[in-house]
Structure prediction request, 616 residues.
Amino acid sequence: SLPSTTVEISLRCENLRDTDILSKSDPFCAVFYKGSAGQSEFIEIGRTEHINDNLNPVWQKKIILDYNFEERQVLKFCVFDSDSSVSSLEDHDFLGSVECSLGEIVSMQSKGFSRALTDGKGATIHITAEELSSNIEVLTLKFSGKELDKMDWFGKSDPFIEIFRSTESNQYILVHRTEVIKHTLNPDWKSFQISIRSLSNGDDDRDLRFDVYDWNRSGSHEIIGEFHTSVRRLRKGPNNDNTYDVINKEKQKKKGNKYNNSGTVTLDSIKVEIVPSFLDYIKGGTQVNFTLAVDFTGSNGNPNQPSSLHYRDPTGRPNQYQTAIQSVGEIVQDYDSDKMFPALGFGARIPPDGQVSHEFFLTLDPKNPYCNGLDEVMAAYFNSLYNVQLYGPTNFSPVIRHVAQFADAYQMDPTNYFVLLIITDGIITDFEETKRSIIEASHLPLSIIIVGVGNEDFEAMDELDSDDSLLRSGSLVAKRDIVQFVEMRKFVQSNGQWSKQLLAKEVLAEIPAQLLSYMKSKGFKPPNPAPDDNLQTFQPSGTGNFVPLSTNPGAATGAAHPSGVIHVEPHPRQPRHGLLSNRPSAPSISLVPGSITSATSVPPYPGNGGSLSMVN
Prediction:
């Protein structure tokens, strides 16, 4: 492929119109992309944070893109006033937009790219693009202030810091904003992590400007003062060189020699780490194990009708479920050397007795969930589509807990990570139970990708994909964000075709970061590749490797669960080789007869007789 370079897009606006009656607008910017490779429609690729009560926003969140010189890459920047927590842009007030090519932005680096917003009534957007370095260091920094100026009439100050880095065109772009500390002149800000790439783009001598502000509810924050430093100076750690006079230029100009400073800010601590990348773990032998779960509930529509999301088109044209499976499968199959994928279905009446199941194997073979390659996955999908009855309700929690059981066996082992891909029309019946199952699994080596097909309101899914705050259910709080939600309809083009490449990219975008967040939470470093003679790739053979689920009600114990009473029972096994000799065995599940889940089988996943290997 032709070479590309990674660029970081920074955004700010001036003179936005005010659409709020009692306050100012709360603006954010949504960014859309259209490449030249047959793509006719714009697709959203990212959003900034929204900033309260501000008509001149400087957004901290960046948009990262691959820049290809030989390709015309068109971007559209749409600015909105945030009116609710709903993600749909139709629920927010439009403040203006700009359409341009990435090439135009890059070519204006020396001057900076600025343009009036269309329908913006005099508003301007300023866009900066800078090529990112490959530096992988991460800094943990902590600052405190002392004797800052009193800015409030009836109190002290509410100080926070904004950190800017200079660019090659002598502009300054925001890279970090601390929290606000209320009612103090001696703030003690929390420590924070920031990559060298974000802070200085790998240049230790690049100028950094720290602006210290007094927060105001109106959004018109008052400058207390500023100071300048560099990463090279910060690396020296806490000392006199890293205690800075906060200078207010207006006060300095008025008071002359009588002015000393508006307080000081001190670097209290600095920690420099080399953070492993996703590829470092893959090269070290970490295996990413994918499981597919397909929604076969009645809300998808009759498969014989063209309106059905599971439509069996006699012309062979793929339905939305096929498109999602193929788009993502073509990517994930490269990370599995034996191409053996567990594939599940849920929400259907299954043969032979028509019992409703929320975790059946698409193969309809109760002893073998595995499909050999993407073609066999598609064959198993059609096998189920022609042999099951779409039913309901739509319960996610059984398949989430199914995969979580196997991830649980690898909590203290960095060699395996699990990804559950759920494809659904979005109408969840057990929503609260699904939230609880996600929260319970958030400490495990597991990511959950949900692809929404059809035209339902997916607002509930946005709640599960907790990018801005951790998922909650009552007093339960997730340890980390493990869910990525993607709407299929955003990737349909005017000709009715799907942009499969961009769909796959969006679906898999968060997996590397989620894997890294898990490894970091456990303190795991990339494992070392095992010698070839120590690895044994698992090949399902149907020769007794699978333990069928018991339907004996006397074997079931525990609390009631929507999918029946679950009894987890380890089965002893003989170790296959030394590396796996101490692995826990796969659990089996005993289900109460008459529950909405039929008796199926739990396969022995990696660690129970073999492994799914990564291709380095």
User: Anything to note?
Assistant: Residues 530-616 have pLDDT under 50 and may be disordered.
